[in-house]
Amino acid sequence: MLLQAISQEVTIAWMVAMEIDLRKSVTLNNGVEMPRIGYGVYLITPGMTERCVHEALSVGYRSIDTAQCYGNEREVGIAVRKSGRPRNEVFITTKLWGCSGYRDTQQSIDASLQRLNLDYIDLLLIHEPTGDVPEIYKAMEDVCRTGKLRAIGVANFLDDAYLRLVEQAEIIPAVNQVETHVFRQQASLRKLMKSYGTQPEAWSPLAAGRNGFFTQPVLTEIARAHGKSVAQVGLRFLYQQDIIIIPKSTHIERMRENREIEDFVLTDEEMQRITLLDKGKSLFKWW
Ligand SMILES: NC(=O)c1ccc[n+]([C@@H]2O[C@H](COP(=O)([O-])OP(=O)(O)OC[C@H]3O[C@@H](n4cnc5c(N)ncnc54)[C@H](OP(=O)(O)O)[C@@H]3O)[C@@H](O)[C@H]2O)c1
User: Fold this and answer.
1) Check: CATH 1.10.600.10 for 35-211+243-248?
2) Has residue 4 got a pLDDT over 90?
3) How many CB atoms lie within 10 A of CB 113?
4) Has residue 159 got a pLDDT over 80?
């Protein structure tokens, strides 16, 4: 009787844990689960990357966003291995840089795998729509079929570039990572991506602090009402719309803060007020 009760309790605890896990990830269009909150390592020097990724993993991040052009893939791989976490518990994204066609893309993927020192990459993105995109993407599709890539996608593919790609792709991009924050909300691109089954992911979800993000009056007022920070409100606004976020911080207390956005909900009215902050254009002038 006692054993039965214990076993029931264990099962319930397991189900609750599973439910939480499911809530914390999104299912990509090929069935792969990707965490909704990740940690970005752009502009983190190779010398700081191992410490930062170690700290990010220690406060609960399970998804790391790097790129060939960040110059820190090697250190990301070292930190993940040293953490002792099973490979399938950490989701690794990297991005191709400067590829021009089919063959150099295949070589470039192998070079990333070597630097990361991994057998597979969870998500590989084309960093920007340059080079012979159809050939680059075809190479990614072929490598994906071998199992070295669990999912493939793109970054910075705005309306036309995205449409051109999906119309010729055999594998619809699982993710499109684009500049997305309260000042550039990308509503129409997200609607288009949804119609094809591509998951939106926000780069610079804190606007990298630009345009007075951390002191913005509407965000400050809403943050005060919830006992939260401006960063948490800005991130929650994206999270609440099912956009994957990858905030970057080199400070462990901010890494922690940026993940603590699941214990409050923005009201419809608050969402509306933040929607009005959209300027509809880039703060970076890259894409
Ligand atoms: N695909 C692309 O083209 C592309 C382009 C840009 C970025 N990304 C990806 O997106 C990730 C995030 O974007 P991002 O790094 O540009 O900018 P971000 O995450 O929007 O903002 C990072 C900035 O905000 C500060 N910060 C972070 N958390 C904070 C908090 N709670 N309170 C106050 N300040 C805080 C950081 O400073 P501290 O470090 O000092 O805390 C840093 O200056 C990148 O790391 C990268 O992985 C991709």
Assistant:
1) no
2) no
3) 20
4) yes
